[in-house]
Amino acid sequence: xxxxxxxxxxxxxxxxxxIVQNRDVExxxxxxxxxQLVHSALPELDYDAIxxxxxxxxxxxxxxxxxxxxxxxxxNTTEINRALARAASKTGIAMGLGSQRAGLELDDERxxxxxxxxxxxxxxxxxxxxxxxxxxxxxxxxxxxxAVEMIDADALAVHLNFLQEAAQPEGDVNARNCLAAIERVxxxxxxxxxxxxxxxxxxxxxxxxxxAAGVDAIDVAGKGGTTWxxxxxxxxxxxxxxxxxxxxxxxxEWGIPTAASTIECVREHDCVIASGGVRxxxxxxxxxxxxxHAGGLAKPFLKPATDGPxxxxxxxxDLIAELRTAMFVTGSGSIDELQQVEYVLQGETRGYxxxxxxx
Length: 359
Description:
Elements: H1 3-22, E1 35-37, E2 54-56, E3 59-61, E4 65-67, H2 78-91, E5 94-96, H3 101-105, H4 109-121, E6 126-132, H5 133-138, H6 141-151, E7 155-160, H7 162-167, H8 178-188, E8 193-197, H9 204-212, E9 217-219, H10 228-238, H11 242-250, H12 258-266, E10 272-275, H13 281-289, E11 294-297, H14 299-307, H15 309-328, H16 335-338, E12 343-345, H17 347-358
Helix pairs in contact: 1-10, 2-4, 2-14, 2-15, 9-12, 10-11, 12-17, 13-15, 14-15
């Protein structure tokens, strides 16, 4: 990697953070609006005794809520990651990091600290690292293990962000041989592999392929939340790259809605995280009723993280209260029971799913 490439990597991380915080990068249409959980008027439960804990990849979590991969790779993100990690530790939930490429490829202690801070402040939390599938193809196993060791990771997420790359002025649009790289690392890495999208969803066919490749979990990261092609459209406009700006804008709402992607993926893999436009504990409850193990959020934690760990903890506790209430009024005393609760599938999501199943 050249010095120029190194500088671009770090600057891009800062661009992303600033755009997410200050520009309109939200889409709609997760499909959760089409999921109606069946109300239980006689739940026969003690609200305070409802058990939200889960076993995730052999680790005990207090609640099925993930702080999704967001930040790292620029010194501006260090305090944000400190707040997120401390909140994850205090509340017993999982946290993912943003891409660790910069930490592996840049010789900069401040950049490295933006990642290592999470384990420093959260020694016992479930923390998972993050590399792009394209980087996985380029790195040998020793390099990938360095990403794990950097944060003493409990798992490694491999992100699929090829639409984002296509809209990025400096994007890497060679997607060949990434599946083989995922399979190679899944077989040999010291920790489990989570494969995740970045806002466009994962189809049943792709989930089936990933399952055969040996991945341990799938994070659908569907349409309906932050749009990374939209983020790149802002960057392309600033870089005077009109073609990429048009692509980013045109594909701003591209993808498989999160609810539909969750339904498809749970048919193919037994450990699915639902993310992408998840905004409430009720969304998490709906995702689990569809068969997911947990729900993940990213952008909703970003503003609280700039205010410090207490604000993040408050947000997590709000989500837990919302999820517990949804469990109470569906008669679900545990997450296993919530996975079995009755629901009604309506609207566009029903049409989407029925068409996909009928093919």
